[in-house]
Specification:
about 80 residues, alpha+beta, S16 Ribosomal Protein, Chain: A, 3 helices, globular
């Protein structure tokens, strides 16, 4: 199964997250099939915190990819998924 989930990047105390498409069995920071955007909680404005390639997310969702709970909430906030 293919999942849309987060992988951690950045240094200690200044982490940011990449939103990517992974095989279900891949480890958290393993190689992604494709990166779809990022989530940086350290940005001040909500608009800058999340950047998502909406077209590619819709493509992967149509192919049966399942988002993790966290990514699903980010997609909902971005208006991509209800």
């Amino acid at each position: 199964m293919v999942r849309i989930r987060l992988s951690r990047a950045g240094r200690k105390d200044l982490r940011h997250w990449r939103i990517g498409v992974f095989d279900q069995r891949t480890r958290r920071d393993g190689k992604a099939i494709e990166h779809l955007g990022y989530y940086d909680p350290h940005k001040e404005r909500d608009v800058e915190k999340v950047s998502i390639n909406e077209e590619r997310v819709r493509y992967w969702l149509s192919k049966g990819a399942q988002p993790s709970e966290t990514v699903a909430s980010l997609l909902k906030k971005a208006g991509i998924r209800t």
